Amino acid sequence: MAINVSWMSNPQYLAQASHFLGGGALILIAALFSTTWEPIFITLCIGVFAASLKEFWFDLQVEKDSFADSFMDWCFYMLGGVVGVGVVF
Description:
Elements: H1 11-32, H2 38-61, H3 67-88
């Protein structure tokens, strides 16, 4: 039985899965090394700031992406972070 990985040939799907996993992994790794909720909240705030800076400044200025592409990427970062927080708590 072969595993169907044809979705990986579309770079948009692969990028969104990577943004989602990146946002979620950030929170889950922070939870592994903390015993209270404060470091997780601080990591979430830093992650939101870093994702916003990357998507809305770097990608729009340097890589010349469109605002819609950057906003979609940012949403997948945030979705991953929200799922990560949901898994932790």
